[in-house]
Amino acid sequence: MTTVNKVKVARLEDLTPLIGKKVIVQDKEIGLFLTSAGQVHAVHNICPHKQGPLSEGTVSGHYVYCPLHDQKVDLTTGIVQEPDTGCVDVFPVEIADGDIYLCL
């Protein structure tokens, strides 16, 4: 049986809609995103193409665009959209009393 480790990474009030925030958890660089629909997503912050920092990219809907080469990454699945290929890890998020937790 796998044990889930919940790590507090931010407060909901620390996030700005459509603007990424970089956090470091257990030596992993993670991008947090608050969509315009109010959903919080967490993905590995490094684009698989040229290692661009996704937290500095443009957010639209449930996608983030890499700031280096405009690769479109789905924040819910981590899959890079065609015609590009690749994916990034997605981390489950829980929110309790305004605190944002990653489930690792």
TrEMBL record:
Start and end residues of each Rieske domain: 7-102
Q: Does the keyword Acetylation apply?
A: no
Which keywords has UniProt assigned to this entry?
2Fe-2S, Iron, Iron-sulfur, Metal-binding, Nitrate assimilation, Oxidoreductase
Q: Where are the transmembrane segments?
A: none
Q: Which Pfam families match?
A: Rieske_2
- Highest taxon of the lineage: Bacteria
A single GO molecular-function term is: monooxygenase activity
Enzyme's top EC category? oxidoreductase
Coiled-coil spans are none
Documented EC number(s): 1.7.1.4
Q: Which biological process, per GO, is one annotated for this protein?
A: nitrate assimilation
Keyword Oxidoreductase part of the UniProt annotation: yes
Name the PANTHER family for this protein: 3-PHENYLPROPIONATE_CINNAMIC ACID DIOXYGENASE FERREDOXIN SUBUNIT, FERREDOXIN-RELATED
Name of the protein described by the UniProt record: Nitrite reductase [NAD(P)H] small subunit
The species is: Staphylococcus caeli
Encoding gene, per UniProt annotation: nasE
